[in-house]
Amino acid sequence: MTDTKPLVVWTTCHPWIQEVVAEVQPDEFDVEFLDLNDADAVAATLPRVDALICLSLTTEQCRMLDRCKLVMHNGVGYDAIDIETLAEMGIPVAVTPVMTPEGVAEHALMLILALSKQLPAVQQSMKSGEWNMLGWREGSHNLSYKTLGIIGLGRIGEAVAMRAKAFGMNIIYNKRSRLPASVEDELGVTFEPDIDRLVARSDIITLHCPLTADTDKIINAERIAHMKPNAYVINSSRGELIDEDALIEALQSGRIAGAGLDVYTHEPAVDSRFLSIPNAVLLPHLGSATVEGREASGERVITNIRVWADGHRPPDQVLEGWQ
Ligand code: NAP
Predict the structure, then answer these.
(1) 207 phi/psi in degrees, rounded to 5
(2) Residue 268 preceded by cis peptide, ω within 30
């Protein structure tokens, strides 16, 4: 650290995020915004950064971080950041989990409800002047007593379980390490160690594990073949968790009843085949993106950076730099 103020650089440049940052920005840091798509700005800025807040970071960009001492992911799933290179360079990584569970869980429940109640189609019908009060009853369903299968019961999965419990759902879950019985009781969840069985037992499957080599295409053609015909699949974690070709084929053929997607394999591109599937409800990676979430996460980022600038380990640091 030098005598000058540490330079904190945010790579999320949407004007309203800049406004949020400006509100929480403390005087003890210089703050800049950087568009990672602007190669000249990247080359000019990254070597000067003391702390970087980003969603993604390539190997080449990591290598430009000559003086950076902390990379903070402005979210929790850091699969798009080259953490191995950062580790080699001795740069620790922190995440920003604050308000994310609430935001993503609400979105997952919204997708489940939208599919169960046919919300997009009903809304379109109403706005075209129809009144089909009896017709829509066919194909609309309650959540009560339905089985919800959660794959990945961490921060977000637990928040989903708490909300699903309030809807009277039967909740089963899979993760690598089983939760203590007391936590299972409190959440009202039952462990299902076999993902194939979880998939076959569930009316709704919702994905809340990170993208790793183990979870890449965790929902594939073979698993879809075991799903109930009335099943919905919800993905607000990472697009790569689902084999999109297999999902599209299952939706087009009516093999399963619907999908609610917030994330896609090639973001920001969305496979155009999804656009003409009526029972695919699509969102543009909005999971944790609420006014409250952004404000809380902006403040939390600054808290972490302040602690780091004071010479201590940031509270949300998840990875060491091991140079
Ligand atoms: P978390 O607290 O780390 O929880 C992850 C869960 O996944 C843990 O329960 C973990 O179980 C489980 N898991 C890991 N590997 C698994 C595997 N191979 N099979 C089954 N379960 C596995 O993470 P989180 O904060 O809940 O976030 C989860 C993901 O949500 C993030 O990684 C990110 O991709 C996504 N996300 C999306 C948005 C959005 O805007 N749509 C926003 C934030 C996050 P163990 O403890 O047993 O390993």
Answers:
(1) -100, 125
(2) yes
Residue 55 to residue 256: CA distance in whole angstroms: 33
Length of the chain as a residue count: 323
pLDDT tens-place string over residues 158-208: 999 999 999 999 999 999 999 999 999 999 999 999 999 999 999 999 999
Distance CA 157, CA 174 (A): 10
18 alpha carbon to ligand 1 midpoint, in Å?
28
Q: What's the CA gap between 201 and 171, in Å, rounded? A: 10
Rounded Cα gap, residues 103 and 240, in angstroms: 21
Residues labelled catalytic: 238, 267, 285
DSSP three-state, residue 191: strand
Q: State the distance between the two ends of the chain, measured CA to CA, in whole angstroms.
A: 18
Cβ–ligand 1 distance for 152 under 6 Å, the answer yes
Do residues 288 and 103 make contact, with C-beta atoms less than 8 angstroms apart?
A: yes
DSSP secondary structure letters along 56-71: -B-HHHHHT-SS--EE
* 204 alpha carbon, distance to own chain's centre: 18
Residue 320 CA to residue 51 CA, distance in Å, equals 15
CA distance 168 to 164: 7
Whole-number Å distance, alpha carbon 152 to ligand 1 midpoint, is 5
Residue 67, both tokens: 């003086």
How far, in Å, from the CA of 124 to the mean position of ligand 1? Answer: 34
Do the Cβ atoms of 163 and 197 come closer than 8 Å? no
Q: How many CB atoms lie within 10 A of CB 262?
A: 24
pLDDT digits (tens, 9 = 90+) for 62-101: 999 999 999 999 889 999 999 999 999 999 999 999 999 9
Half-sphere exposure of 53 (CA within 13 A, CB side): 25
CA distance 164 to 172: 11
Q: Is residue 154 lining ligand 1, measured as CB closer than 6 Å?
A: yes
pLDDT of residue 323: 64
